[in-house]
């Protein structure tokens, strides 16, 4: 039997759930409050971030082979408070505030055994069809994937640990370190957390590139050394000017366009590393590979993250990363249709939206 905040029994009753009923259509339903297994905790969700993948599913109904079959629950960036604890759980208790890592892996495939669990072919990941996400009031989740937050890190920041983990994984894939000059293409949420991860890992000079000035202003606010509005300036020429013609040691590409990926090869210094994070809409690109060969560039790619949550939480707790700084809009759970519509259609002004699920 699970321990609870009440009388030692499982919480009963129904919870409110936001569901995608079709492309561009959100609604609500009620579902039973889940009961945690012995190795799980029940979390009362307080904040859930709206990710680019949520917006893409909402706009198009699919990402590649992952197709939404309504009613579907979006959301995979949750933070909340433990309200019930399975009898096999020892490291968490009722009242602990947690960030939830959204992917459950099999634990025994070759990738899991190698520690590369993000590559597990049998992962169950929130809001990746057919697995429902967490735009809902409660979720039962494996306790080992719920990370306790320090006193000075709140549950909004807990929800944002998920995208920050992508940024740190990108920085780690690029072997970021002090003394480098780095460049990040894209100043959306993932571009900004990648920049902040680079700074947290000691990179002192980070150039940020985007076509939206408000996002570049946000990048400067959060620690970018220089910004380039690629609508107004030639990126390759500007990077040459800023680096005395040397180019950059590390590029993180989060925009997912052929143009920015081609530019990444041009601005990279000989022997540099390019980390590809953004997905292109077509899935295919034509790139100047002869130039990449001449420069002996290293290409790395990113698929989610692995073993990152403790590092990311510590970076926020220590003040190295201003995670709340990326949030431009907070929507009430009762306003989910508007939250999704604005996030999709006002990208020039909205960098990161968060849904407030419950009072906390």
């Amino acid at each position: 039997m699970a321990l609870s905040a009440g009388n030692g029994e499982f919480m009963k009753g129904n919870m409110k759930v936001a569901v995608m009923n079709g492309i561009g259509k959100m609604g609500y339903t009620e579902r039973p409050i889940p009961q945690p297994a012995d190795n799980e905790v029940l979390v009362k969700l307080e904040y859930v971030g709206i990710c680019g993948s949520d917006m893409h599913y909402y706009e198009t109904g699919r990402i590649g082979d992952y197709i939404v079959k309504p009613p579907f629950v979006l959301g995979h960036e949750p933070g909340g408070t433990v309200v019930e604890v399975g009898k096999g759980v020892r490291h968490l208790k009722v009242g602990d505030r947690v960030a939830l890592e959204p992917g459950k892996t099999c634990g025994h495939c070759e990738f899991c055994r190698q520690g590369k669990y993000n590559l597990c072919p049998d992962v169950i990941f929130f809001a990746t069809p057919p697995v429902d996400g967490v735009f809902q009031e409660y979720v039962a989740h494996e306790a080992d994937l719920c990370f306790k937050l320090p006193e000075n890190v709140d549950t909004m920041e807990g929800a944002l640990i998920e995208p920050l983990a992508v940024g740190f994984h990108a920085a780690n894939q690029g072997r970021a370190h002090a003394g480098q000059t780095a460049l990040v293409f894209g100043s959306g949420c993932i571009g900004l957390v990648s920049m902040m991860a680079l700074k947290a890992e000691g990179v002192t000079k980070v150039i940020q590139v985007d076509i939206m000035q408000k996002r570049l202003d946000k990048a400067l606010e959060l620690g970018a050394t220089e910004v380039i509005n690629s609508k107004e300036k030639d990126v390759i020429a500007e990077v040459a000017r800023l680096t005395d013609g040397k180019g950059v040691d590390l590029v993180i590409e989060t925009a997912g366009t052929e143009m920015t990926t081609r530019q990444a090869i041009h601005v990279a210094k000989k022997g540099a590393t390019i980390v590809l994070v953004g997905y292109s809409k077509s899935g295919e690109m034509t790139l100047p590979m002869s130039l990449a060969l001449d420069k002996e560039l290293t290409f790395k790619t990113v698929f989610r993250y692995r073993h990152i949550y403790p590092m990311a939480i510590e970076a926020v707790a220590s003040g190295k990363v201003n995670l709340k700084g990326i949030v431009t809009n907070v929507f009430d759970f009762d306003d989910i249709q508007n939250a999704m519509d604005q996030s999709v259609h006002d990208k020039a002004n909205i960098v990161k939206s968060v849904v407030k699920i419950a009072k906390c």
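The domain at 166-301 is CATH 3.40.50.720 (Rossmann fold). Residues 155-173 form the longest helix (19 residues).
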